[in-house]
Design goal:
The protein is α/β, with parallel strands linked by helices and about 130 residues long. It has one domain: 3-Layer(aba) Sandwich (Rossmann fold), CATH 3.40.50.2300. It has a 5-stranded parallel β-sheet with strand order 2-1-3-4-5, sandwiched between helices. It is globular, with a radius of gyration of 13 Å.
Length: about 130
Amino acid sequence: MIEETPLVLIVDDVAETRRLMRRVLERDRFRVSEAASGEDALRMIRSSRPQLVILDLRLPQMSGFDVARELRSYEDPELAGIPLIACSASVQPEVRDEALEAGCDAFEGKPIDVATFAARVREVIAQKRQR
């Protein structure tokens, strides 16, 4: 059986952050797409149906919190259930808690740990599949 190559959507308004995450994930054989805003992220989620979304919380206009809440409200259970990893430089417990309450499945601080990031993404995808 050929294992599918997971598609991960990286949502961050900082191009350098997206580039770093892309390099780390592609080195671990992920397919990667990128969005620079919450609005673009929701459009791309509907069209490409990624296996996981890495979501910056501090986005212009539509925050990552709002993206998570909107995605979780979708009627299509496949879309509404896409795993979300909140990724933020704001690592205070209240930010983490708000991200989880908004519907994120996990939280990673920035800067990311390049040695463990891809494994963490695989872990969150696997956890969601088991539910």
